[in-house]
Amino acid sequence: MRTFARAGVVVLLGLGLGLASSSSSQAGAKPSISKEAYGSVGGQAVDRYTLSNGKFRVRILTYGGILQTVETPDRHGRLANVTLGFGTLGGYVTSKNPAYFGALIGRYGNRIAKGKFTLGGQTYQLAINNDPNSLHGGNAGFDKRVWTATPVAGKNTVALRLSYVSPNGEEGYPGTLRTTVTYTITKDRGIRIDYHATTDKATVVNLTNHAYWNLGGEGTGTIDDHKLQLRASRYTPVDSTLIPTGKLAAVAGTPMDFRKATAIGARNRSSFQQIVYGRGYDHNWVLDRHGKGLEVAARVSDAASGRTLTISTTEPGIQFYGGNFLDGTLYGTSGRAYRQGDGLALETQHFPDSPNHANFPSTVLRPGQVLRSTTVYQFGTR
Ligand code: GLA
């Protein structure tokens, strides 16, 4: 591959993509990918990649595999960045990104009760970073690692493959876990994420991405008016520490029922016990699946901008988190403070605390097995 530097930006050639000459600054007509140096963390260099395909552009950091920006048109063709994040690497590093904006989450997305699980007769203790539980992989999960990046050419797509090898015992998890996550920007304003992982010792894994969405544009206010539809007739109720009780409860007749598109703000201040525990929505929905392939899990729409987002996945569950813990102390990409409900995360996943619930789909990965999981975020307008 040939590279050349221009105005601090390294443009990658040789992808057979018919690279637009100004690929780094314009969402051109043809798929393109460019790379720029983006600082360093703990002595490790970080790069930022810009992937464009038509009127759609995303930026991805090798730090945390973070989806930093996603620019997509509204019904009048006007671009806005619809994902929450920071405008600098320092934003992510110095704040330790407590909100996990845009980050890849591993080894285990969401909570493990008291950070403890037993596998093969051995009990493992993880860091308690969300008292009294372990959350999102512990103190230094995949969101705080620098990933190795490789651009990948497709016919009408452009992709970035990120790899990370997590050593045996890292954050208390057994086995060397080799993870590859590929972000593909499709020709019709879609982001496809393919997860792939193998281990050399039995372990537990639950990978996801923690992007927050605001279809009006990040920093423009709350998502109370966004309508959400979840293809789920059950959810996993939680205790006061947000650990599942183990039951699969029906959504019917409760504020958890999103089978019909409903405005998020209509019920997120309800006194329903589950909503009180979560300070709003922060739960795992059990998807009504028909098979093992990619199936629609969620649809989000914003009437004001006309933007829509459809999420399809191969996973059995989805965490709908309404940005309840955003408290106005973080200033986002456009410089505005993020307050409660200014974005929603929809994290496709296996269920929280699965290692401690035999009735949940298993998150155990053994040597010789391959974890494969796919989620597609499809943007549109209406
Ligand atoms: C997940 C959790 C939330 C919160 C966010 C990050 O969605 O379920 O409780 O921890 O991550 O702030």
UniProtKB/TrEMBL annotation:
InterPro entries: Ald1_epimerase_CS, Aldose_1-epimerase, Aldose_1/G6P_1-epimerase, Gal_mutarotase_sf_dom, Galactose_mutarotase-like, GH-type_carb-bd. Residues 1-27 form the signal peptide. CDD domains: galactose_mutarotase_like (cd09019). Keywords: Carbohydrate metabolism, Isomerase, Signal. Its EC number is 5.1.3.3. It catalyses: alpha-D-glucose = beta-D-glucose. Pfam families: Aldose_epim. Gene3D superfamilies: 2.70.98.10. Pathway: Carbohydrate metabolism; hexose metabolism. The keyword Cell membrane does not apply. Belongs to the aldose epimerase family. NCBIfam families: PRK11055.1. This is Aldose 1-epimerase. It comes from Paractinoplanes aksuensis.
